[in-house]
Design brief:
Layout (H helix, E strand, L loop, with lengths): L1 H20 L23 E6 L4 E3 L5 E2 L12 E13 L4 E7 L11 E3 L3 E4 L10 E3 L4 E11 L19 E6 L9
């Protein structure tokens, strides 16, 4: 008989443990959530705006008043100078300035080569060492791009060719910060 009471007690204890451990109820665990004082962040800015119409000069440095009426010849170099207002804001902001639109579809083929754009600070005329700009370069810059027409043009190649400068433009493109994970 004693064994019977012990067996009943063990069974009752086991059922009680099962009910507490997961048979319909949960065991509570402590947790705590707290707001932090991380502050906030503001995004930077990247912008490019032409200040005024650009100016054309020929190989001798003479001003070209109407580029549409100018007749270029092999060996000629035309230079376009444009003042631009550049906005670069951000602690790790860096961007490159490059020429766009100088494609074969616009007449720029093997006989016309577009150079890398050179940049100067428009305020003091200081030459910027590269076309990579940083936040410190914010302000007005003068971009100078040359279009060289090769003197090695054979026979009558490119005679009466049309070069569409209307499709040429500048692009300011942000560079990913060093060590960026691509986000």
């Amino acid at each position: 008989m004693t064994m019977n009471k012990m067996a009943k007690g063990a069974i009752a204890t086991a059922v009680g443990v099962i009910l507490l451990a997961g048979g319909g109820g949960t065991l509570a665990t402590w947790n705590q959530a707290q707001n932090s004082s991380m502050g906030s962040v503001v995004s930077g800015d990247l912008n490019l705006v032409p200040v005024s119409a650009g100016a054309w000069t020929d190989k001798a440095g003479k001003a070209i008043t109407n580029i549409a009426a100018y007749k270029v010849v092999p060996g000629e170099t035309l230079t376009y100078t444009q003042q631009l207002d550049v906005t670069l804001s951000g602690d790790l902001m860096a961007a490159t300035l490059k020429v766009t639109g100088e494609t074969v579809n616009n007449g720029f083929a093997a006989n016309a080569v577009v150079s890398t754009t050179a940049l100067k600070n428009a305020t003091d005329g200081a030459v910027l060492p590269t076309t990579t700009l940083r936040a410190a370069d914010t302000g007005k810059v003068t971009a100078t791009t040359t279009f060289a027409f090769k003197e090695t043009t054979a026979n009558r190649e490119s005679v009466n060719a049309n070069y569409n400068f209307g499709a040429i433009g500048y692009e300011l493109k942000q560079l990913a910060p060093a060590g960026s994970n691509g986000l």
